[in-house]
Amino acid sequence: MTPAAPILALEKVSRILAGRPVVRGLDLSLRRGEVLGLLGVNGAGKSTTLRMIAGVLAPSQGVVRIDGEDLHEQPGLARRRIGYLPEVPPLHAELTVEEYLDFCARLRALGRGAAAAVAQSIERCGLVDVRRRLIGALSKGFRQRVGLAQAVLHDPELIVLDEPASGLDPVQALRLREIVRGLGADHAVVLSTHVLPDVLACCDRVAILHEGELRHQGVLNATEGDIVLRVGVARAMTATDWRRVPIVVAAEPMDAPTEGRKWRLRLHAGASVPTLAAAIVEHGFGLEELRAEQAALEETFLAIASGGTVQAAA
Predict the structure, then answer these.
(1) 280-296: per-residue pLDDT in tens?
(2) Which of 75, 87, 193, 222 is least buried, going by the fewest C-beta atoms within 10 A?
């Protein structure tokens, strides 16, 4: 079966501001049903990248494509197919939630479908109980949800979120993550953040930016309930070798194919780490490293953020 074409594709995208490259040679793609975590420290180029994806900024070089169409040449695509939540939501404190979303629906020219779209976005973003309250009287968590509701109001193919959980307390952040995960089932979602738990909780894939460059890309979430581990072995291995171990569902090489000594393994939900370690020893693979996926991503992020490399983290 041929994989679906990407909703979003960035091809060698760069942005120069005041003579300084803020984003350089960025290549990314995203399909429907995927949530991409754009991770990086403050100043890494995340917000500039998101503004180019949302059509707010034009790239200095390269192309941003939505469903294969050049966004710069077809700016109307941004209104029809993209929903954008900037870091500071564009809210009107003097309006109620319903009034504000109705106003946004008119801006989107939703016509007769406006009332149904407003009701659906209120339901999806958990705003039913506050729909008649003034936005200015809401907590920051609810204001962020209102901003998210305007971004999904027109049921866009691509949803772009810039630091949506910034400044929220743990309970509010947890609820927002749940909403983002739900949106990822039917849309392509880009989530920009510098908070690692946001990426681990919401995203299927991660892209780490540093100083405007893409330093790392990878898949995050395995099938629900499965265990994902990073493994280092003493001798070169192949995916066929790993299939000899019954508890291994999938094996992805993390180094050059000719080396075959560092792997990302996905285990059956009922498997255990000690069982895998025993199997590696029993088969004579020579166990040198065994750690959880989350710890590996954290080390990769910290190594990149401190000026190191992905290889150093590995």
Answers:
(1) 888 888 888 887 666 66
(2) 75
